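Most newcomers find our protein records easier to grasp once they have seen one. A learned vocabulary of local backbone shapes supplies the integers on the structure line. An example says more than a description, so a record of this kind follows:
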Amino acid sequence: MPEDILSIYRHWLQWCPINEDLAARQKEAVVEIARGGKTRESALEMAHSAMFLADYLVAAFEGANALPQAIACQSGCHVCCFNQVELTPAEALFLGDYVDRYFSPEEKTRLLARIDRNLKLKAGKDKKEIAAIRHKLPCPFLRAKKCSVYPARPLLCRAMHSLNAEHCRQEILSPLSHFEFYSHRYEIILSVIAGLDAGCRALGCQSRALDLARAVRDFVQSPGPMEEWIRGKTVFSEK
């Protein structure tokens, strides 16, 4: 049975509980967008509104509060891009649209080849087994140690950060029992994810958690995925 988007992140929730007010705010934004019509544009705006709100609130918090320790992440640091990210269908549509707009036919062909490799390596494995080989599973969008879809990256990717770059490098091969991070980023972004998910469910749209690689493949292979999704059709594989 496919998992709810928040149950995917249960290990984070014990440290970063959902801000119910923020989740409700995002849910209301999604429902309000749909009132203008269930269109391709409104489907994209649902995810865009969530990404904008998450980015804005993280930046506002960190602008108003001095962090006791600097975040270690910088351009070219890409260890977190080996995490096997799950995302909502709304985010998958936004990501797929970005690929459609900005990737050449040749780039799309190479992307699908990387996705096929990713899915073949994960086939038949549970999450624990996949975690053990994730050093072999770079994100299909990772190119030259950088994200090739950075403006459209999923919400969870926007939460990921570290206070110790060396811990990141160690963790990819041998998961650490203690990993340093700031809880506010996860609280904000998981709360926005909760609201996005709740809003989509309230509209009758597919909202179960998706594997990033499989979702992008499904998007590319589906005719009119945004129009189908906004009308309540199941566009993405949930297995």
Observations:
- The mean pLDDT is 89.
- Strands lie at 86-87, 142-143, 146-147, 210-211.
